[in-house]
Amino acid sequence: MRRSKFRLFLPFAILFLVCTDTYAQSTISICVKDAVSGMPVPAVHIYAPDSMLTTDSLGCITFQVANAKDAVKLNTDAEGYYPQQIKITATGDTSLNIDLTAIIYDQSVVVITAKKDNSFGITRLNNIEGTSIYAGKKTAVIYPDDIQANLAANSARQLYSKIPGINVFENDGAGVQLGIGGRGLNPNRVSNFNTRQNGYDISADALGYPESYYSPPTEALGRIEIIRGAASLQYGTQFGGLINFRFKDPDTSRIHTVSRLSGGSFGFLNSFTSLSGTVGKISYYSFYQYKRGTGWRPNSQFGLHCGYGMVQYKPTEKLSMRAEYTHMQYLAKQPGGLSDQQFARDPSASYRNRNWFDVNWNLAAFTVNYKPNNDWRISWCTFGLHASRMALGYLERPDRADDTTANRKLLSDLYNNIGSELRVLHYYTIGDSMNSVFVVGARVYSGNTSQLQGEADNSAEPNFYLLETEGAIQSEYFFPSRNIAVFAENIFYLTEKLNITPGIRYENIRTVSDGYYKTEYRDLAGNLLLREWNDEYRVSSRQLVLFGFGTQYRLTENVDLYANISQNYRSINFNDMRVVNANFRVDPNLEDESGYTADLGMHWMIPDALYIDAGVFYLRYNNRIGTVIREDSLTYSLYNFRTNVSNSRNLGAELFIEYNWLHSFKTLHELSTFINYSLIDAKYTGSEQSAYTGKKVELVPAHIFRTGISWKYKKLAMSAKYAYTSQQFSDASNSEYTPSAIFGIIPAYAILDYSVTYSWKCLSASAGVNNILNTSYYTRRAEGYPGPGILPSDPRNFWMTLQVSF
Predict the structure, then answer these.
(1) Separation between Cα atoms, residue 212 and residue 708, nearest integer Å
(2) Residue 360, CB-side half-sphere exposure with 13 Å CA sphere
(3) Is residue 745 over pLDDT 80?
C-alpha cells in the first residue's frame, strides 16, 4: 500500500536537511527482499531507537543518521516474515540488503509470543500495542505467573507489591473483592480506576457508579496492565488511570487443561479449572472457579462461583472475531465493624450476625480486530453488563448493640449497561522524514441503574426482599446515564530518540436522577407523627474537552525519560445523590470533580538484570468529594456529611528498583531483590470550605514501602516480602478519634509474607505464610456496608496450592 505523504511539509523537510548538512552524518540505504524469491518486500517497518521507518513499494528506504562509533540497532517488522535485528555502524554512507525469511504456517495457525523483557514479573507497555498508544505515559504490566503470591486469594498486597503508590484495602483476605487505589485515591472497590477486562468495562456504571464488585480470578490472568492518570484521554476520565485485566491466551494445542486446588486457614478452599486450545481457525479459553471459606472472624462465611468462556474465530491472518461471557455470583455474611475499644480488646470479635451481601455479575462482549495491512489496525468492541448487588443488615454504629427485634435495611441495585468502542490506528509519514502513529476512537455508552432501599425482616437469614408493610420502602430511584466520547492521540517521532504525543478527548455526558424518598417525623417516644413522600428529579448535561500531552526521550538504549500532563474529570456517584443511612448525609448540591495529573520519570531496563522506574507526579483535584463531621442544628448530635470538601493537590515521588545479583555469572541460580517506595504529600488547598485548607487528604499514607527477595534454582523458587504503610486519616476533618469509630486514624502497619513454589513436569506445588509476624492491624473504617466501624485485617494464615497441567 502506498504510504500517506503530506507534501505540504516537503519545504520544511528540505530546509531541515540543509540546516543540518554541516553536521557529520551518514546516509543509510536499505532494501528488503524475500530470502527465497528475491522479490522486494514493501511496507516493512524498520524500528530504530524510538523511531519508525517504512520501506516503499520497492522495499527500500533511505535515511540519515549521525556518525557514531557504536552500532545502531535496527529491528524489522513485516507481516508474514520473521523479525530481524541488524546492527549498523554509522561511519559513512552505507547500502545494505536485508533478506527476510517467510513464516512457515502449520495447519493455518501461527502464534507469535512476545518475549518478556525480564523475569521479575513486571515490565512496561510498549509505545504501541494493538490499537492503543502508550508513548510518554507511566505504565506497568504485571505477569501474575512470575509473581510469588497467593493467586487463589487474589492477594493484592503481594500481587501489586511492585507498583509504587498503591494503597490496599485488606479487609477481605479471600480476595472476593479487590480494593486498591493509587497516588492517594480511595481504594474502595477500585472506584478511582477505569477498570476493564480484555479492554471492556466491568464496573457497575462507568460514569455514575464506577465501583467494581467483580474481580477477575488472578489464576486466569495472563497479565495486568496499569496506566496512570494519562489514560484519561483514550479510556475515560478517572483520575487514577486504567487497570485492564487480560486473560491468558488460548493454548496452541487442540486441548489444554490446568487444574488448581488451594486450601488454607479459616476454612479457605479454592478450586480452579481451565480449558483452552486451538482447532483450525477457532481458538477458545474457558474456566470455572469455586471459592468458599468461613473467615477468621465469626459471621464471615462466603461462597463464590465464577465462570468464563471465550471463542475466537480467525478466518484470515488479517481478521479475527471473538465472543466472551463472564458470570460471577457470591454470597457473603459480613461480621460488621468494630469500635476502637472493641478492636483493642479482641479484633476477631463480631457483634453483628444479620448482615449479608449478594452479588450477581454477567458480562458479555463481542470484539472484531482487523488489520488490512501493516499501516492500519482497526478494533471494535461491543459489551454489556447485567448485574445486581444487594446489601442487607443492621447499620447502626458499632458501639451500639444489635436490636434483633428491629428490621434490617436492604439496599438493592440493578445494573443494565451497554457500550460500544471503535478504535483506528494508522502508521504514516509526514513529508519524507517524520514518522507518526495516529489513533482515533469513539465510544457510545448507556448505563441504567435502578436502586431500591427500604426495610427487610428482622431475621438473621439472607432474605433479600422488602417487607410489604406501609412505609417499608424508604427510597426508589432510576439513574440513567448516556455518554458519547471521541478521542485522538498522535505520536510524532521528531528524531530517532525523541517523540511527542499530543491528545484530545471530547465528552458528552447526560445523567439523570429520577425517584422519590420517604421522610418521617416522630416524637420523643418514637411514635410516628407524619410520613411524607418526596419526589425528586435532577438532570445534568455537560460537554467537556480534555487535553493531554506526553513526550519520551531515549537517553541510551536502555534508559528512557518520559513526561506527560493530562486533564481529568469525574462525575458524581449515584450513591452520592440519595442514600438513606443513619450514619451520614449527602449534600444535595454535589458537583462533579475535575483537575489534571502530571508525570515526570525515568525508566531503565537491562533484561533479566536491572529494572528501575523512578518519577515524580502532581495530581490536582478540584471540588474533591469527601466526608466531614457536622452537628445537627436541632438535636446537636454529630453526623457525617458527604460534600465537595475543597480543592486538593497530591504531590509525590515513586521509586521501584529490582536487581538480579547473579545475572553476570554463569549459573542456574537467580537472586533478586526489589525496593518499592512512594512518598505522597496530599493536602486540601482551599476553596469555599476554607476550614479544611491545609488538612491532609483522607486515605493517603505519606509513606508506602515494600521490599522483597526472591531466589530461583531450576524449578524451585522462594520469596519473602515486607510491606509497610504509614498512618492515614479516614476523613477530611483529620479526626484522630470518634466515638462511632467510623472516622479516626488508621495506624501504620507492617506485614511480612513468605512463599515457595516447586514445579516438576506437569505438576507444581506452592505454599506460603501470610502475615508471619501475626500483626494486628486494619486498613479501613467503613461508613456503611459492609458494617460501620473498623474492619480488621487477617492475622497469620497459611495456604497451599497444587496444580496439574496437561
Answers:
(1) 29
(2) 10
(3) yes
d(CA 573, CA 575): 5
Q: Which three cell numbers stand for residue 67?
A: 556518525
The count of other CB atoms within 10 Å of the CB of residue 181 is 23
Q: Which three cell numbers stand for residue 160?
A: 501489586
The per-residue pLDDT for 76 is 76
Q: Whose CA is closest to 272, among 296, 295, 247, 298?
A: 247
| First vs last C-alpha separation in the chain | 44
What's the CA gap between 510 and 506, in Å, rounded? 14
Tell how strand 528-554 and strand 778-782 pair up: unpaired
One DSSP character per residue, 494-531 reads -SSSEEEEEEEEEEEEEEEEEEEEEEEEE-TT--EEEE
Q: Which of 771, 753, 656 is nearest to 704 (CA)?
A: 656
Contact 243, 190 (CB under 8 A): yes
Instruction: State the cell numbers at 383.
Output: 459489551
Distance CA 319, CA 361 (A): 30
**Residue 114 backbone phi and psi in degrees, to 5:** -70, 135
Chain centre to alpha carbon of residue 332: 24
Residue 402 CB neighbour total at 10 angstroms: 18
Three state DSSP letters for 6-72: CHHHHHHHHHHHHHCCCCCEEEEEEEEEECCCCCECCCCEEEECCEEEECCCCCEEEEEEECCCCEE
The pLDDT confidence band at residue 388, using thresholds 50, 70 and 90, is: very high
Grid cell for residue 142: 504485571
C-alpha to C-alpha distance for 137 and 195, rounded to whole angstroms: 18
Could you give the CA distance from residue 262 to residue 271 in angstroms, rounded to a whole number?
Answer: 6
Residue 718 CA from chain centroid, whole number:
27
**Which of 568, 616, 592 has the alpha carbon at shortest distance from 235?**
568
Please give the backbone phi and psi of residue 510, each rounded to the nearest 5 degrees, phi first: -135, 120
pLDDT surpasses 70 at 310: yes
* 470 Cβ contact list (under 8 Å, min separation 6): none
Is residue 544 a contact partner of residue 569, using CB atoms and an 8 Å limit?
A: yes
pTM: 0.85
Q: Are strands 355-373 and 319-334 parallel, antiparallel or unpaired?
A: antiparallel
Burial class of 759 by CB neighbour count within 10 A (0 to 12, 13 to 18, 19+): middle
DSSP-derived letter for residue 209 is B
C-alpha cell at 447: 448505563
Q: Cα separation of 722 and 750, whole Å?
A: 7
By the 8 A CB rule, do 617 and 654 touch?
Answer: yes
Q: What is the Rg, in whole angstroms, of the alpha carbon atoms belonging to the chain?
A: 28
Residue 751's nearest CA partner among 732, 726, 773, 766 is: 773
Closest CA to 140 of 118, 172, 173: 118
Q: What is the rounded distance in angstroms from the CA atom of residue 220 to the CA atom of residue 363?
A: 16
Is the Cβ–Cβ distance between 411 and 393 less than 8 Å?
A: no
The DSSP letter of residue 687 is: S
Helices (H) and strands (E) in the chain, counts: 4, 44
* Close Cβ partners of 19 (under 8 Å, ≥ 6 residues apart): none
Nearest to 245 by CA among 196, 200, 212: 196
* Contact between residue 717 and residue 120 where contact means Cβ atoms under 8 Å apart: no
pLDDT digits (tens, 9 = 90+) for 211-266: 999 999 999 999 999 999 888 899 988 899 999 999 999 999 999 999 999 999 99
Q: Distance between CA atoms of 147 and 124, rounded to whole angstroms?
A: 15
Residue with cell 512496561: 124
Rounded Cα gap, residues 172 and 291, in angstroms? 13
795 phi, psi to nearest 5 deg = -80, -165
